[in-house]
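Explain this record to help learners:
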Amino acid sequence: MTLDDVPAVGALEHKLFPIDAWPVQMFLDELSQPETRRYLVAETSGGIVGYAGLMCIEPIADVQTIAVVPEHEGRGIGSTLLTQLIEEARHRGAADVLLEVRADNPRAQQLYVRFGFEQIHVRPRYYRDGVDALIMRLQLPAAHPEGHEATEAGHA
């Protein structure tokens, strides 16, 4: 995501999350912190169809946002964005990736479970409309210095 993408992302944000939409300034603030943030967009010839963002302050990475326009759901865009955020978290040395997901969004919950996320907590009435947030965590395997991930037995 670049500064030029922010107006389109902001418009999508308000369309997709009318109750809890981030103000455009929040995206600008996030992009101004590349040392701890990474934001992506998914584009087609028609423009931006998805976006996602990660904050990483070792040892924790937090998925700040991930969204795909409904007309493009089911095409692997969300999976691709999430894969890239997880790889960024690994690259930045995170041990865990956390996220909040609406309790009434089973489609997103299923995506996260497929990637290995587990629900670890509930934040009651987290969203402005009173819906609970499920806190989910993905534990990332420790990497050996030579870059190989450790297995449970401790061998690469």
